[in-house]
Structure formats: structure tokens, C-alpha cells
Amino acid sequence: MGTTTIVLIVVIVLLVIALAVAGVLLSRRRRSEHLQEHYGPEYERTLAETGDRRATEAALTEREQRHRELDVRDLSADERDHYASSWTTIQRGFVDDPVQAVHHADGLVVEIMRTRGYPVDDFERRAEDLSVEHPQVVQQYRDARSIHDATQNGTADTEQQRHAVTSYRALIDTLLGHDTRTGDGGAVNGRHAQNPTTEERTR
After folding, report:
1. What burial letters (b/e) apply to 54-84, b meaning 16+ CB within 10 Å?
2. Whose CA is closest to 121, among 20, 113, 142?
3. d(CA 97, CA 104)
4. Is residue 123 within 8 Å of residue 138, measured between CB atoms?
5. What is the sign, positive or negative, of the torsion defined by CA atoms of 101, 150, 148, 163?
6. What is the C-alpha to C-alpha distance for residues 119 and 76, in angstroms, rounded to an integer?
7. What residues have CB less than 8 Å from 118, skipping those under 6 apart?
């Protein structure tokens, strides 16, 4: 084998290696961009916790893998109507007892998640599982839960509790299968969009 042939083989091998490395780097970059775009504030929150971008993306990828193993289902029409009715009752009760309204709103979220097939024993696990399919509302869930805990400790005021119930509304609309991005708060068989908003109920 001549020197020229050997040199050509070496060059080809190096090119193949370089292309493989470039492919891996491009794939990682695209994956990183996807995770940042999909999770948004949840990505930044996780990054602030880990302090490392690679660890953050590994954690979010692990969430997705874990979520694929869940047997999450949609609600039936009867279940959706039942929970929508429960939510309306909670909103109406805010004026008379905001503490109980916050408590019941948090409990309703857990009940709906349990019915749909989510594990519900741990709040952080619930938030992580929700973030995979519903990253747009998970921060609202965290905020609402924080106020729920403050309410339990007696350190939340009525305005904070109103904010919590409004945040729970966005989450519950999502869990019931409504599109919280339409601006109408979702609809249950065409009726829910006609209900007063949480802000209107709690004023």
C-alpha cells in the first residue's frame, strides 16, 4: 500500500470522525434548544437549582422518560362536568371563606390528577410530571401551592389567596382538558366559558 493511499485513508477516517462529532454536537444543541423552548421558566428554575446546564437537561430528560411510563388518561365527559361543578362551588365559596377555598382548590387538583392516573403522593413529583405536558402552568401550580402552605401557616393574606385561586383555575382548566391560552378560561361542553372568572367571583 502506497503512502498516498495511506494518507487518503487517514484523511477519510478523520473526516468521518469529524462528521460524527459534529453530528453529536448538533444533536445535543437541538435537544438543548428544544428543552429550553418547551419548558421555558421551568428550565430556568431547574437550572438555578442544579447550577449546571447538562445536569438540568439530564433531569428534564429523565422526567420525560418517567412520564412516558405513566398511564395518564383523559377525563370522561361526566368526570369533567363533575370536577367543573366542584370548581365552580370552590370559586363561589371564596368570598365567605378564602382559607377553605384555597384548601379545597389544592385538594381538587390532587383529586383530578389521581383520577387521570398521575402519582399524587408528593407535590414536587406532581409538579414535575405536570411540567412534561403542561409547562405553561406548572409555575402557577408552584406559586399556588406556596400560598396554600402559607395559608395553612396563617401567613397569607386575602389578596395572596385570591392569586392562588386564580392560579389554581389555570391548572384545573388544563387538567380538565381546556386550552388556557385561548383567553376564555376553557369550556366544558360549551358552558364553562360563560361562568364568571375567579377574579369576578372573589371581588
Report:
1. eebbebbeebeeebeeeeeeebeeeebbebb
2. 113
3. 11
4. no
5. positive
6. 19
7. 70, 72, 126, 129, 130
User: C-alpha grid cell for residue 7?
Assistant: 494518507
Positions of the chain with pLDDT lower than 50, given as ranges: 179-203
Single-letter amino acid code for the residue at 199? E
CA atoms within 13 A on the CB side of 111: 13
Residues 193 and 186: beta-carbon distance below 8 Å: yes
Residue whose cell numbers read 382548566: 173
User: By the 8 A CB rule, do 202 and 94 touch?
Assistant: yes
- Which are the contacts of 122, defined by CB distance < 8 A and separation ≥ 6? none
**C-alpha distance from residue 39 to each of 10, 58, 127 (Å):** 43, 13, 12
C-alpha cell at 163: 392569586
Grid cell, residue 141, equals: 401550580
pTM for this model (two decimals):
0.73
Q: Which of 94, 115, 114 is nearest to 105 (CA)?
A: 94
- Say which residue the cell 365559596 belongs to: 93
